């Protein structure tokens, strides 16, 4: 694996290898050392967790981090193309991590530079490192990845995390439930790919229809910033709110995941239940990103 | 005999036959034929196979199968005839290539290929009906959603 751009092209073996490596890093069985390496974090779109998580991961590996956030005060504001920006960064850094509002931006960058590129989110398309930490969290809490019942709830149309996760789960024979209003349903291209791979999925509009039968409830935020029409956002923004009461008949092993940040979709009362796992999930991201960076830089 | 009067036979070159009606000029644009090429265009000929068809004859130029396959999206039934000394020496059915580069424009305005200087690239995932996937934004489009770049 030279780059990490899309879960569509990460094989089952590669997924398993990354998760095993993350486990060894978490358990301190191995401690890769990247003391002579520099990572460029190019965040053209806002981020808290992903950026800090990558930064923490690189620092724990003893590497250095260069960070660009937004375009203000940079040559991009002067009209520099993305290509020129990354051609320059490749001279400074050993690996590029990029988040960009345009879909395919990370792929494009991987084609113009000669160092590894990690996609940290490209518009509504993909967010593969989030997916790998989601898989790590699922495996850690369920003891396996195969044959699980998994519900994804919320903005399935614009939510890149659920797109990447759906692709990755195709390797593990899941039963998927897509819970969303019709206007925010899973895109056709992903449903076509799921059908081609023989993956069972159902589309629903209410969390209550699935909550008592699933092993993983993957909540997502309705993303105001991706709506072309603000009225459309207002109509759906509070459509799903998970409460403690809704979990009273849930399966014992159920875990609620969320890529965070949350707005209103999970009530705080859920945080203290045995089902809540989203903060641990965020922590898992550091081990998984340590594994990905070390692997791409050939240090493990 | 009647047809020969309409469009002269060529001695050497390439004839692209069975182009859907009114698509001949689009085919010329896709093939990026140059000003100095000698081209005869026939539009709206009667055809047993298509009802009506267009035809293009390019003199003294032998197009390759790979070049002509680029037109498969708009002319899926076209045939390529290589002419030598007034005779058809090779007849090739057009096939949709696995990858289309620089031919179609991604319909997704949020795709990087519409915002940076990028040569578009699409993977053909189904021929009938035509479905292509953008190599950049990874979305799938059908033939009626596709826009051409020429």
UniProtKB/TrEMBL annotation, chain A:
Keyword Transferase in record: yes
Record's keyword terms, sorted: Pyrimidine biosynthesis, Transferase
Sequence ranges assigned to domain Aspartate/ornithine carbamoyltransferase Asp/Orn-binding in this UniProt record: 147-295
List of residues binding carbamoyl phosphate: 49-50, 99, 127, 130, 260-261
Biological process annotations from GO: 'de novo' pyrimidine nucleobase biosynthetic process; 'de novo' UMP biosynthetic process; amino acid metabolic process
Annotated Gene Ontology cellular component terms: cytosol
Pathways per UniProt: Pyrimidine metabolism; UMP biosynthesis via de novo pathway; (S)-dihydroorotate from bicarbonate: step 2/3
Leading EC class: transferase
Gene3D superfamilies: Aspartate/ornithine carbamoyltransferase
Family according to the record: Belongs to the aspartate/ornithine carbamoyltransferase superfamily. ATCase family.
Protein name: Aspartate carbamoyltransferase
Source organism of this protein record: Caldisericum exile
Gene: pyrB
Automatic annotation (TrEMBL), chain B:
Cofactor annotation comment: Binds 1 zinc ion per subunit.
Segments forming domain Aspartate carbamoyltransferase regulatory subunit N-terminal: 5-94
Keyword Zinc: yes
Key word Chloroplast present: no
InterPro entries referenced in this protein's UniProt entry, alphabetically: Asp_carbamoyltransf_reg_N (IPR020545), Asp_carbamoylTrfase_reg (IPR002801), Asp_carbamoyltrfase_reg_C (IPR020542), Asp_carbatrfase_reg_C_sf (IPR036792), Asp_carbatrfase_reg_N_sf (IPR036793)
SUPFAM superfamilies: Aspartate carbamoyltransferase, Regulatory-chain, C-terminal domain, Aspartate carbamoyltransferase, Regulatory-chain, N-terminal domain
Domain annotation Aspartate carbamoyltransferase regulatory subunit C-terminal: ranges: 100-146
One biological process term in Gene Ontology: pyrimidine nucleotide biosynthetic process
Origin: domain of life: Bacteria
Gene3D superfamilies: Aspartate carbamoyltransferase regulatory subunit, C-terminal domain (2.30.30.20), Aspartate carbamoyltransferase regulatory subunit, N-terminal domain (3.30.70.140)
Cofactor(s) required for function per UniProt: Zn(2+)
Residue numbers binding Zn(2+): 106, 111, 134, 137
GO molecular function: metal ion binding; transferase activity
GO cellular component assignments: aspartate carbamoyltransferase complex
Keywords in alphabetical order: Metal-binding, Pyrimidine biosynthesis, Transferase, Zinc
A Pfam family it matches: PyrI
Quaternary structure (record): Contains catalytic and regulatory chains.
PANTHER family xref list: ASPARTATE CARBAMOYLTRANSFERASE REGULATORY CHAIN
Similarity comment text for this entry: Belongs to the PyrI family.
Protein's job: Involved in allosteric regulation of aspartate carbamoyltransferase.
Protein name as annotated: Aspartate carbamoyltransferase regulatory chain
Gene from which the chain derives: pyrI
């Amino acid at each position: 694996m030279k780059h990490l751009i899309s879960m569509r092209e990460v094989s089952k073996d590669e997924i398993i290898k990354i998760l095993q490596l993350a486990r060894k890093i978490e358990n301190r069985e191995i401690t890769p050392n990247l003391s002579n390496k520099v990572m460029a974090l190019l965040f053209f779109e806002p981020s808290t967790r992903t950026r800090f998580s990558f930064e923490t991961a690189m620092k724990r590996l003893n590497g250095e981090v260069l960070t660009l956030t937004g375009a203000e005060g940079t040559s991009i504001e002067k009209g520099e193309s993305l290509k020129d920006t990354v051609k320059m960064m490749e001279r400074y850094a050993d690996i590029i991590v990029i988040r960009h509002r345009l879909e395919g931006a990370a792929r494009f960058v991987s084609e113009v530079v000669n160092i590894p590129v990690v996609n940290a989110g490209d518009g509504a398309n993909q967010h593969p490192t989030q997916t790998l930490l989601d898989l790590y969290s699922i495996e850690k809490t369920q003891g396996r990845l195969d044959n699980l019942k998994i519900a994804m709830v919320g903005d399935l149309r614009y939510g890149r995390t659920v797109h990447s996760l759906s692709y990755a789960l195709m390797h593990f024979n899941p039963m998927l439930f897509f819970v969303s209003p019709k206007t925010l349903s899973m895109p056709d291209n992903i449903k076509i790919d799921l059908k081609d791979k023989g993956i069972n999925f159902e589309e629903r509009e209410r969390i209550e229809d699935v909550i008592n039968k699933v092993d993983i409830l993957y909540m997502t935020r309705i993303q105001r910033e991706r709506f072309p029409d603000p009225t459309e956002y207002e109509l759906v923004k509070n459509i799903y709110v998970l409460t403690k009461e809704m979990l009273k008949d849930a399966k014992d092993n159920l875990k609620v995941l969320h890529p965070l940040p949350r707005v209103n979709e999970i009530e705080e009362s859920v945080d203290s239940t045995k089902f809540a796992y989203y903060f641990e999930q965020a922590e898992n991201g550091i081990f998984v990103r340590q594994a990905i960076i070390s692997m791409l830089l050939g240090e493990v | 005999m009647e047809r020969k009067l309409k469009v002269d036979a060529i001695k050497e070159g390439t004839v692209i036959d069975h182009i859907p009606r009114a698509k001949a000029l689009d085919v010329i644009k896709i093939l990026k034929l140059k000003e100095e090429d000698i081209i005869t265009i026939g539009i709206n000929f009667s055809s047993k196979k298509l009802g009506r068809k267009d035809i293009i004859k390019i003199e003294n130029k032998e197009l390759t199968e790979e070049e002509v396959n680029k037109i498969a999206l708009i002319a899926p039934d076209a045939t390529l005839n290589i002419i030598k000394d007034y005779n058809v020496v090779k007849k090739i059915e057009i096939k949709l290539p696995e990858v289309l580069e620089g031919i179609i424009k991604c319909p997704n305005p949020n795709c990087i290929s519409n915002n940076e200087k990028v040569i578009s690239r699409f993977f053909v995932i189904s021929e009938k009906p035509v479905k292509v996937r953008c190599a950049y934004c990874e979305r799938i489009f059908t033939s009626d959603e596709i826009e051409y770049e020429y």
